[in-house]
Amino acid sequence: MPISLDRRSFLAGSAGFIALHPFSLQAASNQVHLRLMETTDLHVHVFPYDYYADKPRDTVGLARTASIVNDIRAEATNALLLDNGDFLQGNPMGDYIAYERGMREGDLHPVIAAMNTVGFDASTLGNHEFNYGLDFLMKSLAGAQFPVVCANIAKETGAGPRDDKTLLPPYVLMDRELTDGAGAKHAIKIGLIGFVPPQVMNWDRRHLEGNVQARDILQAARAYVPEMKEKGADIIIALSHSGIGAGQERDGMENASLVLAGVDGIDAIMTGHSHLVFPSSKYDGLDGIDVAKGTLQGKPATMGGYWGSHLGLIDLMLERDAGGWRVVGHAAEARPISKRNEDRSITALVESDAQVLASVAQQHEETLAYVRRAVGKTDAPLHSYFALVADDPSVQIVSIAQSWYIAQMLKGTKYEGLPILSAAAPFKAGGRGGPEYFTDVPKGDVAIKNVSDLYLYPNTARAVLVTGAQVKDWLERSAGMFNQVEPGKADQILLNPDFPSYNFDVMDGVRYQIDLSQPSKFSSKGVLQNPEANRIVNLTFNGAPIDPAAKFIIATNNYRAGGGGDFPGAMGDTIVFEGPDTNRDVIVRYIVEKGTISPRADANWSFAPLPGTSVLFDTGPKASDYAKDVQGVTLSAAGDGPDGFARFRIDL
């Protein structure tokens, strides 16, 4: 039976002496303990630093992950350190190298320098490795002191995968000597094979079309794994830059790791791409998955979070008999570099490895200068002081960038040509964050770090396919932001304190009004409570009433598209595009391409008139600097609000 690592033993080892893993302690003369360590989705996060916010962050960084690698290696006599892809792009350091410094022949990419310092044994490609083009990718990989494999991307395809001319070696066979429980050394051939989602051909079409082709992950595995066995592989480890999705196989799966684990000949599987942790309760109760044992279809598996947040671990007890090496025991876990406390604060569990920090120290300083320097300009201020009561430029720029990106991504698909709407919400809009918790980017230069003020979360771009009726109900759900008001009554409190601003989606591409005299159709939690209510009135598209049966694409983020906030039309079953890029990256690219952005609120939404009625809402004191420029609403100062807020009156 699999033996789980004793956490107390590890902590004791960390406190000053080595605590061997139970497999190492129990290995007999014909048994070896092999420890597999995994990082995945590093996205150039070497320093524990958030470049967007321009401040340290204890939850990320290969330097932190690396600091426990030596201790973990010491717990087992034999160990391999593997990376599961998406290391080359994903934060401003990656963009700085790609767009500013460039990669010349012989240059060493900082994340590769850091990985060399930590001592990786192998890696595979992730989908983001292709974001800067093939030339940049190959120049970056040239500096790696470890093999990088990928079985399902080919420069030329043949009759089957084994006839392909792959971009990189599909697999590597590593001859190693492992020490058994009696101290004797044994030769073993370890096979490592890598996979990437075939959707890269859509996500990076501009770089890949005409240059490479992608194979189905399962098709490639079933071709190459037997070949690896033919060439003497004793054990085979799959580096699957693919999430843990459904157990039913279909062609071209993006999240294929669960099905991949069932391929005969694969002994263990590293997963990633989803930015999740395995084993974890996230996967409880799913067919084919045993969280307690850390297995997918009975095979040991792990997923080490993202940005260096965890180190994935698989322990294998291998036994040699007349038929060769076989796995007789296994355990899996994902070890974190930090923990979240009950008060939501973060405690770092490890310190950074000084050598890893030193390996990229210069590029870190260069990146800081890069994020603090302007990448574009705005000819109008970007603020969120009135984002909950009027069309707002800080939300609109996010919305415009999303539409711009999704239009590019849907080119060449069956959804090209459908009207694209865009939904975005104000994240920094006071509330529990206090009177200073607002976006406020002045007119003029826009630096990359300003984007974190516009978009707080590392969400990724998504598109959903909805009907006109669902567009209306999406907006009805959003309109729960407001209390119901009584017509003809003065100075009623407008905002519902139980409704978070990140669920107040404003939708560009349509025009509409919100009738505050109506009750909210949905509760603050998204539960249908007044089916006949119609707060959303005068909803039009292209100047005509919206057709309830018409089809629309809505550009949004992974949280909303996957059911976050319980919005009609966004419950995870309407997604037609899952972008590989964060919404922050999309905004940065949009600003860089445009040079100067001109955010202008066009008052595409407003409150329906209620003569003789006024409402009060609270915002930041600096709102008075911008009140005269707010479009579509009649504002006046109404004194001080509670807790340092400023109060404004709206005449409806």
UniProtKB/TrEMBL annotation:
Q: What is its main location?
A: other
Alphabetical list of Gene3D superfamilies matching this protein: 3.60.21.10, 5'-Nucleotidase, C-terminal domain (3.90.780.10)
Source organism, top-level taxon:
Bacteria
Residues forming the 5'-Nucleotidase C-terminal domain are 439-568
Keywords of this entry: Hydrolase, Metal-binding, Multifunctional enzyme, Nucleotide-binding, Signal
> What is stated as this protein's family in its record?
Belongs to the 5'-nucleotidase family.
Q: What is this protein called?
A: Bifunctional 2',3'-cyclic-nucleotide 2'-phosphodiesterase/3'-nucleotidase
Q: What is the lineage of its organism?
A: Bacteria, Pseudomonadati, Pseudomonadota, Alphaproteobacteria, Rhodobacterales
